[in-house]
Amino acid sequence: MTTKTPAPSNNRLAAYSQAFRDFIPEQWAPYPATWRAPLAATAVTPARRTAIADQFPSDRLVIPAGPYRTRSNDCDYRFRPHSAFAHLTGLGEDFEPDAALVIEGSTAALYFHARVDRTDPEFYASSQYGEMWVGPRPSLDEMATYTGLTVHDSRDLKSALAAPLADPEGKLRIVPGVDPRLEALVTALRGPDAAADAELAQALSEARLIKDAYAVAEMDKACAATLVGFEAVIADIPAAVRRGRGERWVEGVFGLHARHQGNAVGYDTIAAAGDHACTLHWIRNDGALRDGDLLLLDAGVEVDSLYTADITRTLPVSGRFSPAQRRVYEAVLAAQQAGIDAAKPGAKFLDVHKAAVRVVAEKLSEWGILPVSVNHTLSKKGGEFRRWMVHGTSHHLGLDVHDCAQARRELYRGGKLKPGMIITVEPGIYFKSTDLMVPEELRGIGVRIEDDILITEDGCRVLSSAFPRDPDAVEAWMADVQSRPVS
Fold it and tell me: Which residues of the chain have pLDDT under 50?
């Protein structure tokens, strides 16, 4: 006996009568002028594209936006374009699924799924592109005005990629791991060439190491928007305590303001209260907020252009630090200040970390916790201090929260700081409640302080300087925010 595999079914698929098909295109107003003004980013994207093209003068470069990704069954996650695509086109928010930017020499063209006529069944039947489902889309001409790019229909992409290269010695390259369907097409056209694709991904990552003026301005916006979210959380801490499961309440309040102020959160919010603050990437956020505990809030707003802030403050739930909490907080603050002081042009990227962790190690030694000398623990043979601060102090920041991650090690971790780079400075001390090497009064205290830093010609600028850092200033800030009239 044989069994047949059931054919896939779509229980949500509806049939459309001819009467409906004839009726649906009638009497619609003209399309609004949504996409008929250039993006602000068009002032900088041509130079960004030229810089990449100059590195691969004979090659055809394919930078996909990426497809929708399934969340569950037939439901997709909200679309976000790949950061390299956003960087070179200026498109942010949810623009533009299945699109691709193609650069060859001095030419750049955007291929995307343009708006169809209302007589086309896609208008009412496509849940991914149909106007009745996802709203109006730009036409080819409108997208050209919006981005300043030459624009083609995505159905022409295959033939464009298959056409002979202007330089017969050139290569066809694609950013790997973004769009499997498009990557398979490129592989079919030229054969596998993982090395060529990795070189492109690396160059695109390195292109964002130094931010242009537009990027810096967007990062300023992201920090300002994040301040709004933090203050909304502070204002609602009493409600989070009262309602229970307060970490979720904090996450929700910040997420509301991230969507209102910008595009979304730049990464999953860490809302860690009490001992949860000692888990570095605590995103379960299912615990309670209790008076007497600390709340470690690590969160950032991603603005519509997709640049994101990444800021951490550790807040006393009651509004006042206990003596033990203040002792740990002040140690972390001193470590952060040492890191900020080291963040200047010409310094090594790792100098920031080394300056911060030396202070951490000195405090641990002063408190009798560190079982070896400061110099030993900071040596290659040591590292014991990492029991209480296991992470690095800095990372690059921009379109990705961990930006430029595919850059060469000698330009990133082993590189030097240059004007225009944006990094975080975020030391912490984490004393888990189960750590018997720690004095009992310090167990369960986790503190991190994080700011976003722009390297300037003569030092650095703290982009998130509007966030108080001193413990007295933090207490005053919380009291001020919680005393404001509800708006």
Answer: none
Q: Is the peptide bond before 450 cis (omega within 30 degrees of 0)?
A: no
- CB neighbour list of residue 188: distance below 8 Å, 6 or more residues apart: none
Q: How far apart are CA 113 and CA 98, in angstroms?
A: 7
Q: Are 422 and 216 in contact (CB under 8 A)?
A: yes
In the chain, the domains with their CATH numbers are 32-206 (3.40.350.10), 213-483 (3.90.230.10)
At residue 437, the pLDDT reads 97
Q: Tell me the two tokens of residue 479.
A: 């009291």
Q: What is the pLDDT of residue 410?
A: 97
DSSP assigned state of 238: H
Please give the share of the chain, as a percent, with pLDDT higher than 90. 94
Distance CA 194, CA 177 (A): 11
What's residue 3's pLDDT? 57
As a whole number of angstroms, the distance between CA 391 and CA 94 comes to: 32
d(CA 376, CA 358): 11
Residue 420, classed as helix, strand or coil, is coil
Residues 6+ apart with CB under 8 A from 442: 324, 327, 328, 367, 431
pLDDT in tens, 89-124: 999 999 999 999 999 999 999 999 999 999 999 999
pLDDT at residue 14, as a whole number? 73
The string of DSSP letters for 255-292 reads HHHHHHHSSEESS--EEEEGGGGGSTT---------TT
Q: What is the pLDDT of residue 161?
A: 98
Give the predicted TM-score (pTM) of the model.
Answer: 0.95
Report long-range pairs for 326-332 (Cβ below 8 Å, ≥24 apart).
326/471, 327/442, 328/429, 328/431, 328/442, 328/445, 328/447, 329/447, 329/449, 329/471, 330/471, 331/359, 331/360, 331/363, 331/429, 331/447, 332/360, 332/427, 332/428, 332/429, 332/447, 332/448, 332/449
Q: Decide: residue 202, CB within 10 A, 0-12 exposed, 13-18 middle, 19+ buried.
A: middle
Contact of 239 with 249, CB cutoff 8 Å: yes
The whole-angstrom separation of Cα 427 and Cα 394 is: 8
Show Cβ contacts of residue 434 under 8 Å, excluding neighbours closer than 6 positions: 443
Q: Encoding tokens for residue 348?
A: 């090594």
